[in-house]
Design a protein that fits this description.
Length: about 270
C-alpha cells in the first residue's frame, strides 16, 4: 500500500481505498462532520426484473433506457448475513467517532430494517440525537403488487457525547427532521445505483458545519457529499473503494461550477 500523509494527501481529495484502512491514517479529533451513505447490505445477488411495461416517469432517464431493474448493486453491498454486516458497521463507526472532533456531528443514512441495530452501535461510541427521514417524492413503483411503495429512507444524527457543545447553525431557522425531494434524475444522475440527490443532503451540511470545516465521507460513491461540501466552502475527505466511482466523483468535483450543480444547490458556488 502506498503511504499517504495527512493532511496533504487527504483534504480536498477522493481517496480510492478500503475505508477501514484509510480511516486509521486520519488523526484523532480532526474532522468536523461525518456525513455518509454506507452499504445497506440489501442487494439481491444477480436479481434483475424486466421493467419493459412499468409506466413510471421517475424511472426514465435521458438517453437509452435499460429494460431491467437491477437489485444487485455490486460486491460492495454483499454480506453473508446480518451479523457480518453489523460487525463491519461497528468497525467503521468506531473509527469515524475516533476522528470526529468533540464539537463534531455524525450523520449517516441506513436501511429501514436496521434502525435499532445501527443506533445501538452509534450509542456505544456517541450520543444519538435524532432519527431523520428523507421522503422520496418519486419512488420506484411497487412492481410486485403486494405492498406499498418504499418512499422513505432514514438517517441517524449523533454527536460525540451527550451534553457536549456541538455545531448547529440555528440561525438558519427552524427545520423539520425530514426532507422531501425526488430521487436523482436528469443531468444530476450518474450511473451509481444508490446516488443521493444534492437537495436531500445540502441542508445537513449547512446546519451541522461551518465554512472551512472538514467534512468526511468514508463511502463517497459518486462524490455527492464532497460536491456539496466544496460548493459550500467546506473542506472534504472522500473515501471510496470502487475505482470507477472514484473517477466519477473526481469528474463531478472538476465541474463544481457547472450549471447543473449550481441549479441543484440553488446558490452561487464558493471557489
Amino acid at each position: 500500500m502506498v503511504e499517504i500523509k495527512y493532511p496533504e494527501d487527504f483534504i480536498g481529495k477522493i481517496i480510492c481505498g478500503n475505508c477501514l484502512e484509510v480511516l486509521k491514517q486520519i488523526p484523532d479529533g480532526s474532522v468536523d462532520l461525518v456525513l455518509t451513505d454506507p452499504p445497506y447490505g440489501i442487494s439481491q445477488k444477480n436479481l434483475k426484473i424486466d421493467r419493459t411495461n412499468i409506466q413510471n416517469r421517475s424511472l426514465k432517464r435521458s438517453g437509452k433506457r435499460s429494460k431491467e431493474l437491477n437489485y444487485d448493486f455490486g460486491e460492495w453491498d454483499h454480506f453473508e448475513n446480518r451479523d457480518e454486516l453489523l460487525s463491519w458497521t461497528e468497525q467503521w463507526v468506531k473509527e469515524c467517532f475516533r476522528v470526529l472532533k468533540e464539537s463534531g456531528n455524525f450523520v449517516s443514512f441506513f436501511a429501514k430494517d436496521s434502525i435499532s441495530h445501527f443506533e445501538d452501535i452509534l450509542s456505544k461510541y456517541g450520543h444519538v440525537r435524532q432519527t431523520m427521514v428523507w421522503h422520496k417524492t418519486n419512488p420506484v413503483p411497487q412492481i410486485f403488487k403486494v405492498g406499498f411503495m418504499s418512499s422513505v429512507e432514514f438517517l441517524s444524527w449523533a454527536t460525540k457525547q451527550k451534553g457536549a457543545k456541538h455545531t448547529f447553525n440555528y440561525q438558519l431557522g427552524q427545520h423539520h427532521n425530514f426532507i422531501e425531494t425526488p430521487i436523482c434524475m436528469g443531468k444530476e444522475r450518474t450511473p451509481h445505483p444508490t446516488q443521493k440527490p444534492i437537495k436531500a443532503v445540502q441542508w445537513l451540511v449547512e446546519y451541522l458545519s461551518n465554512e472551512g470545516d472538514i467534512v468526511l465521507d468514508p463511502f463517497s460513491g459518486a462524490g455527492t457529499f464532497a460536491v456539496i461540501a466544496k460548493s459550500l466552502g467546506r473542506d472534504y475527505i472522500g473515501i471510496e473503494v470502487n475505482p470507477e466511482y472514484c473517477q466519477w466523483a473526481e469528474e463531478r468535483l472538476k465541474k463544481i461550477d457547472s450549471v447543473v450543480i449550481q441549479n441543484c444547490l440553488g446558490l452561487k458556488v464558493v471557489k
